[in-house]
Description:
With 527 residues, the chain is α+β, with helices and mostly antiparallel strands. Helix content is 45%, strand content 26%. It has a six-stranded antiparallel beta sheet with strand order 1-3-2-6-5-4. A six-stranded antiparallel beta sheet has the order 9-8-7-12-11-10, sandwiched between helices. It has a five-stranded mixed beta sheet with strand order 15-17-18-20-19, covered by helices on one side. α9 crosses α12 (485-495). It has four domains: 3-122, PAS domain (Beta-Lactamase, 2-Layer Sandwich), CATH 3.30.450.20; 151-252, Beta-Lactamase, CATH 3.30.450.20; 258-360, Helix Hairpins (Orthogonal Bundle); 367-526, Heat Shock Protein 90 (2-Layer Sandwich), CATH 3.30.565.10. The model is unreliable at 1-9 and 520-527 (pLDDT under 50).
Amino acid sequence: MTSSSMHHAGKQPSFTTSPLFTYTTDLVAVLADGVIVAANPAMIAVVPGLIGQQIDNLIHSEDWEQLFGRLSNVPSGGPIMGRLATRPSVALSWAWFDDGEGHTVISGREMLPREEYDRSATREIVLREKAELETRVAQAEDFLDSLINAMPDFIYVVDRSTAITYCNDEFAKIIGYTRREDVEDRLIDDVLSPDLAAYLKSQVHHVFSTGEPLHVVETLDLPGGRVHTDTYKIPLTGSNGEVIALVGSSRDITELIDTRTALAERTADLERINHALREAEIESETALEKERELHHVKNRFLWVVAHEFRTPLTVISLSIDLLDSYFDIMTPDKRQDQLVRMRSQLKRLGALIDEIGYIHRLQTGGFTLRVTPVDLPRFLRAIANETELVRGEAGRVTITSTPAKITAALDETLMQQVFSNLISNALKYSGKLTPVSVRVEVHGSKILIAVEDSGIGISSDELNQVFQPFFRGSETTGIPGTGLGLTIVKQSVEAHGGTIRLDSVVGKGTTVTVELPLVVALDQIVV
C-alpha cells in the first residue's frame, strides 16, 4: 500500500495494511473515539479531506442519529441505510465492526440515488412488514387450526360445489375416516353414504340459496352407529355479500338424548304404575263403596222384611186366631170379613214379593221386553183410573197430551208397573185434595211424560239416593212402602232406552220426568 492510497494520523491501524482495505470498492474508514484516523482510496475519492474529521461530518445529519446510536452501543452490526453529508443523493448501506485494537471500522456500500433509495427502503419495509404479517397470519392460522382440531365438536366447511374444503379430526372420525386429510377437498358424495350425502346437500343448497343459517337437532346413521347432534349450519359470505361457503358445527348430544329418552321411559313407567295404583285404589274404593252399599241395602232389606212383611203377617195371624177361637159363634158376615182381611194382606205380600222379583230379573238380565204399539194417553188414563179407584181418590189425576194421540212402542207390563208406581206415589205423598197432573209431550224423537204433585217433597241431599233399592226418604216416615218402587221404575225405563229425572222441593212437591224414544223396534229385546 502506498502513501497515495491512504492517509492517517497517529499510529497506523493494522487493518489498513489489508489488501481488502486498499482495493475494495466499498467506502471504508477507521475511527478512534469518533474521529476518522484512516480511510481507504475509495472513501478518499468520494469524500476528500476526511482524515481527522469527526464521523458526523461524514454521515448526513438526518441519518446520523440512528447510526450513531447503533455505533455507540453495538460493537458490530448493520446494515443501516445512511446518506453522505457531502452527497445527500447518494445512499449507502453501512456496516461496522471492532478491529480489536480500539478502533471501529465502518464500511459503506453505495446503493441508489435518493429517490430510488426511498422507494427501495419503502419496498423493503413493506416486504418486511408483509413477511411479518404473513408470519403472524400463519401463526394465527396454526393456532386456530389447532384450536378447532382440539374441539370435541364436528367442524366442517363446504363450498358451493359441495366439496368439503376443511374439517377437523372429529368430523373425519365420526364419518369413518382416520385423518381429516382423507376428507378435505373431496365432494360430499365421495365421503358420505348416499342417504346422508343427499341430506347434507339439501341443507347446503338451502343455506346457499337463502343465505340464512340453520339450527337443527339431527339423528344421523353414521359408520359408528346412530348419533344425535345439535347442529348449526352458518353461511360464510364474501366481500360482495354472496355466500361462498357453509360452516357446519355439530355437537354430539347422543348421551343427552339417550338419557332424556331413558328418563321419559322411566317417567312413563312410573306414570303407568301410578295410573295402575290409582285405578287399583279407585277399584278398591269402588269395591268398598259397593260393599258398604250392599251392607246398607241388606240392612234396608231386613228393615223392609221386618216391617212391611210383618204387618200383613200379623193381620193374617190375628184373623186366623179369631177364626180358630170364635168360628162357631161368628156370624157368616164376620167370618167373611176376616177372610177378606186375610186375602187383602196376602195380596199385599204378593205385591212385595213381585217387586223383589222384578228387581232381581231386571238386574240379572232375565227379563224379555215384549214391545207392542200403545196409545199412550189412553194407557195412562186407564192406569190413573185404576190407581184412584184402589185408593178411593177418584178425580185427582188430570192427564194432558200434546198431540192428543201418541203411539209408543212399550212393554205394557213393565210400563204398567212404572206409571202405577209414579201416580200412586204422587197420590200417596200429597194431600187428598191436591191435584196430580200427568203431561205427555212429543219433542223431536222423544216422548216426555211428567208426573207432578204438590206433596211433601224430597230433600236435596236425598235426591241422588231415591233410585237405590229399599231407600225411603226422611219425609216418608209413617207412610207404608218398601223403597223398591222407584228402583223398578228406573230400570224399566232404561230397559226401553229411556231416562228418568226427579226434581223435588221439600214442602212444595215433586216432578218425575220420564223420557222415552218415540220409535222402538216392535220386536223382542232381551235385557
